[in-house]
Amino acid sequence: MDPYSLKKLNEYRRTRRAATLLTDLEDGRDRVVAEGDQVAGELGEHIAKAFRSGKSGSVEADGHSYFLNVHLPPPRLVIIGAVHISQALAPMAKIAGFDVHIIDPRTAFASDDRFPDVRLDAEWPEVVLKDNPLDPYSAVAAVTHDPKIDDFPLKAALESGCFYVGALGSRKTHAKRVERLTEAGLTPEVISRINAPIGLDIGAASPQEIAVAVLAQVIQALRTRGLESKRGEVA
């Protein structure tokens, strides 16, 4: 590997930015492509697909053979609210490969007994997220039903470009949420990125079923990053 490529990869790892080491299998030359960099033709399509899947491998593109070595930051799931849904969601998300972080200032809910083996902060989200900023490889699920707790991390998630933003609540509850976020300066286009009601529509009723629906929607969002804009271009 070229020393310059190694330096760039290490920098991207440090800043939680996805990158692919692109090696030409014919001449051995390599370069680093960060997610979002423009690469034309078939090769660009292969690289975009690799970023979505997280899988490395060899590809044929534009008459050349390449090896794509994909480096993705570990995906994070930040759950706002130490509630019953969170108790089911946290262990499932860990099994699925997510770094799980639960935030809830209500100490009666945010206890180690209720959430063993999970990072848990019994603090206000604005305090925790100041030292643990969100990024495009973070997902945020707000499930407290309390705007005093949920609104700040939802706004922070939208402004940080999180790959998934979801919020628990009825359509009436969400309509009021939209009003508050609009007053806070967010545009309708940005606010529309919130998945509300949260989770895939599978008819979930119990907290455990809702957790399954939420995790499925989070995984779907992770593996389809960037496809929304492509659909819009085709339309």
UniProtKB/TrEMBL annotation:
Region forming the signal peptide: none
Domain of life: Bacteria
InterPro entries membership: MoCofactor_Util/Proc, XdhC_Rossmann_dom
XdhC Rossmann domain mapped to chain residues: 77-218
Protein name as annotated: XdhC Rossmann domain-containing protein
Taxonomic placement: Bacteria, Pseudomonadati, Pseudomonadota, Alphaproteobacteria, Hyphomicrobiales
